[in-house]
Amino acid sequence: MDKIQSDCPYPGCFFCVMKEANPSKRRASVLKFFRELPSQDDDGQVLPISGLWNTAMAHPNDPEFINLGIFECMSALIWKGLKNRRWLAHDQNIYIPYYAAHIIGSYTMNMEEFAERAVRAGVIPPLVELLRGRLTWVEQRVAVRALGHLATYPSTFPAVADHGEVLELAIQLASSSLEIVYSHFYQFVDRRLGYHCDLLTRGMGGVEMESRKAEEWASQLQCWSLQLINCFAFKPEFLHDICKADFLIKLPGMWGGLVNENSPAGVGLLRTICQNKVGRGHVANIPCTVEALCNIARSSDDWQYMAVDCLIWLVQDASTCHKVIDKVAPTLIDLANISTLGDYKRLGDTIVTVLQECMQLSGNSRGTISNQTKAEIDELLRSKQSLKLEKSMPKEDLHIKQAAALVVKLEGNSLFSSGNIAGAAEKYSEALALCPMKSKKERVVLYSNRAQCYLLLQQPLAAISDATRALCLHSPVNRHAKSLWRRAQAYDMLGLAKESLLDAILFINECSQSNDPDLSLKQNKVPDYAERLVKKQMRAAWLFREAALKHGGVHCEGDASDAFGQEADDSEWETASESDAENDARGEADDDTEWKNDGHQEDFCEKS
């Protein structure tokens, strides 16, 4: 390549080529550069490749380099790294396959036309080799990203699917990615490859930064693998390969974590699977997966609506309804007061209709729905009928019902204050039966107070149900602070760390924004009990926890301090649901004061 700048020591320097003022000359020079680069062994090749990486990230829709052969060049460079280990180990060439695969992924993530050009340039075979793990997990991450983009488009999906091992490799990677990153990078600081550390931190951080970024990249490796599988899941012919029991069991537990919360991860793939009758049949046969979907549907997870979709489709399908209805119906009933969620504008009405149709369907066959489930659905239908009747009821009658409910609720508060928790729960139930359905604020309080009673009575499932109903009735949805905290405690009792963590974080957020002096944070300080629960659940829900337990990074259940490199006082990790429940029982029920200066909860019964 001709020298463009006389003061540049590198003949054919790419950066000098890009400074060429004449567009025609510049295009010719860039074209020549892309053609010749894979066959050259000069030092410093990583510099123009990293420059191209920056350009692809910043301008992924710019066709200039696409038309000049960048895909052919990147494909050849990956092959060179795979076949010529001496070249790969020379200078800084170890970085080049990573950058090359990343460039392919960036230029194909938005434009189907670019993806078609990439396929014609032969990028898929070298990407598949990286996906196999021919180099390291770092290259696997960018390879699965690029293949996921190529599989997204109808015109290029067949080319990806023609490589039959891609789906199997993606499933294996989704299942093992966290363990791979933990054991190959995170666990032993002194064994970390230098170029991995450089790529993770861009030279801007030390060991702590490397570890944080490794968790983020591990999550991306898993989530991008799931995204690639998701492209196959839209095709019925691949569902039997995807819907293996052991994989479906693991799927609900695959989530982006706090480091990658923008990915629907496992529940997103389950939603795609459940859109198809074949997929629903497989999911319905895995009770623990259905139960996990119920937990996600009740939770404050951003992807709650996806789990709700799965449950509704499972119940609507006559071939799966009888298998799941007893597990799914209680969850849907708890959610029946939500108006808007995801794409649903009248979710509650949809739930009522679906359950009503299910009841009618069960009338034609015996034993498909348990008597308890039938009773719960009947109660829901009666409540909706009561709401309709209230619309034509005189206001005076509604006020009388509301006043009667208030009297009973105050009786419940009195019983709670005296320590008669079971009696208080019964009174709150009576008050709910009296309280008009349209009195949503009052019903939020009653459900939330009864949830607290169930917590103290060590009935976490009932507490979750009532707290969820309160959150669904509240406006905005899922933002009633006291119910979030109660449900966080109940999830903690059941060992559901992720769900407890999300509710606890939302609880703190609501307190920070609240004008209620009983809820607002004192001097912007998070209450000690909330901080304890969040720390506990962050350890329990840590993405690497299972891998660390397997590889010796965490020595026993409930102790992840070694993996985090922090000292933990066992006394600090007292179960919040136990310690706070004791404080609640001593509270006064005739005022709303919840938070005292010592950070403990003194009263969880609301009077308004």
TrEMBL record:
Segments for region (Disordered): 559-608
Ranges annotated as biased composition (Acidic residues): 567-582
Positions in coiled-coil regions: none
InterPro entries in the record: ARM-like (IPR011989), ARM-type_fold (IPR016024), ARM_7 (IPR058868), TPR-like_helical_dom_sf (IPR011990)
Composition-biased stretches (Basic and acidic residues): 583-608
One Pfam family from the record: ARM_7
The ARM repeat N-terminal plant domain, residue ranges: 6-244
Entry protein name: ARM repeat N-terminal plant domain-containing protein
Annotated source species: Urochloa decumbens
